[in-house]
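Researcher: Quick test of sequence recovery. Tokens follow.
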């Protein structure tokens, strides 16, 4: 990761670092029963430090909720909410995932899709290296980023309905799963949880994981 940060600092001076929250824990996950999960988001909101450290101190419930769902075979929503009430449990689960932004410089509460696309295009090589070589997830959860991930990862999608369904990213044998919104600002978390559950069940029913 150090090489990626050095390259990005040359371009932007101030960047928001991201990636695997806790490498030892993440890399110990075994695959089918313990999948590695990557959340691909747009940009940070007025934050220019290390996103990994921020999430270890203040793990976002929206992301942790989805991590619990995937790793624990989607318990009932109310059961997950009980787990989320425990700060130590939230920290425990967030350390099992990775989170990155397509735009590595700070942003605002409202993202401009054209700007996000432009940054992702400019930094395509570095983003690909981060995802393909360093993180290598089993699931890529696209938090409002499915559209740029289509061209960034060269996904084989259905053009008439490009962001509706999960897509296999064959290069690293991962699934890219569309998610309704940025998980940390989701106004309908129960719906998001239900939709992700359905998406993962569809993937597993095809015996492709």
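Model:
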């Amino acid at each position: 990761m150090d090489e990626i940060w050095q390259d990005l600092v040359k371009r932007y001076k101030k960047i928001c670092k991201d990636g695997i929250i806790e490498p030892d824990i993440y890399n110990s996950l075994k695959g089918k029963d313990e999948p590695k999960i990557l959340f691909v988001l747009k940009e940070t909101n007025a934050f220019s430090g290390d996103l990994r450290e921020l999430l270890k101190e203040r793990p976002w419930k929206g992301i942790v909720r989805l991590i619990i769902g995937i790793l624990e075979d989607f318990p009932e929503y109310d059961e997950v909410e009980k787990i989320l009430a425990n700060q130590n449990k939230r920290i425990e689960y967030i350390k099992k995932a990775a989170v990155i932004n397509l735009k590595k410089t700070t942003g605002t509460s409202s993202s401009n899709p054209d700007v996000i696309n432009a940054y992702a295009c400019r930094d395509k090589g570095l983003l690909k290296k981060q995802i393909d070589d360093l993180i290598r997830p089993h699931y890529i959860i696209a938090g409002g980023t499915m559209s740029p991930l289509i061209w960034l990862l060269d996904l084989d999608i259905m053009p008439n309905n490009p962001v509706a369904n999960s897509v296999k990213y064959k290069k690293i044998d991962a699934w890219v799963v569309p998610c309704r919104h940025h998980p940390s600002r989701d106004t309908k978390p129960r719906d998001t949880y239900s939709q992700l559950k359905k998406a993962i069940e569809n993937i597993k029913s095809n015996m492709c994981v």
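The chain has one domain: 2-204.
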